[in-house]
Amino acid sequence: MNSPSEQGSEQHTSHWHQWILCAALFVAWVGFSPVFIFGEADTQLVSLEAGGGDLARQCAFAALFAAVMWKEWREEGIKVLASVPIWLAVVLLWCLASLTWAIDPMIAVRRVMLLVMVTVSVSLVVRRMKYEEFLNALFMISIGILFLDWIALFVSPYGVHTAAGPEPELAGDWRGAHIHKNETGAFAAIATIVFLDRMIRDRSFLICPVLMLLSICCLIGTGSKTSLGLLFVALSFGVLAVTIWPYRRFQLVICSLVIVCVLVFLNFYNREISEIVGKLDDPGAFTGRTQIWAIASAYFVDHPYLGAGYGSFWAIGKASPIFQYADGWVAEQIDHTHNGYLNIALQVGAVGLVLALITAVIAPAKGIFSSEHLGRDRFALAALFFFIVLRDFLEDSILDRSNPCWIILVGVVASVNRETTAEVFRAVYARYRRLRFIARSVISHM
Fold first, then answer.
1. What's CA 99's distance to the chain center, in Å?
2. What is this structure's pTM?
3. In a designed cystine with 173, which of 39, 223, 270, 277 is the match (CB 3.0 to 4.6 A)?
């Protein structure tokens, strides 16, 4: 049994980890130059021409990384270098390796270092947190940012997109304290999941429903079709994960039935789905996603294995390969693929895409549906996970440096799969020693 001083120290450490995660998400979602205070600027054009970024945000993440490494190094020493979850470490190493063939190494170095700092910091912090502490951190930051969003909507003319902004077609859509309505939509959907989980967990039927109502109203006001639609899909997957856990022996059968039901649904609503897909071609409806995907796919076909190097396709100025494949609004106005998986393939090739899928999709999905330790946290973790990985079919977040959805996904990955690089190497080495012992025994008896 721990002494009072030890319990106090553990509680202090837990709070420190939660505040670090909250700080990272605040910097990622709002930053130090919130648009509702400082007004609009064509930041996208700056990024396209100079390959630049938010210096204050980068310095903040560097400071958080330094603080996390300092604390972890004091407690674990050099072992901290092997404390990152194994698949996260592998995919980060591949991104670092891509610097050797990056089109613009100087920009690529800055971007990949930011990716490494954010990913390592969050994974090291979350692995020391309990599942409920991770969700509690999300709950606290969601309340704070939701409060800022509503203040921005009430007191600032920039709380909504304006016709004078870089995307006049979005005029009237809510964005609150965020730079874009899609970011606000993703936040509002994630906040709704977190508030619903807290309502069920704590039986809070007064405060949490009010928070859910505010976040859903905010989500509807953004006009973010992707986040609004995927919210209910993600909640369904959360319910599914909780429902089939007691029947995990029949998971394959149940998942097969779910797939069949989805296929039947697609067959019956084929005409409606065709109309939606048709709208994807309209730059005014879904920013012309199919046109962007066609151009990006053409580059991937020409460079399938290694890609352009991490951070070396979009927004690197005239050196960008996009100018070899397109002109007009796609080349001049777009700085992301609107598909996270295709975006990964463009940057780090098919090899990087496979590693990213194992890291961010396959391994955590297996953990969510099979881990015995998740308990009542399974619902929220599953809903958050499926919202982010499904959203990436229409947006970009996986391996996207300081993207808040990537930060949360890293947290889910580190929560569900706590096997570190050091533990994997120890297990592999132990297995190697056993096989060598068996081989020697067989040889000696021959």
1. 22
2. 0.87
3. 223
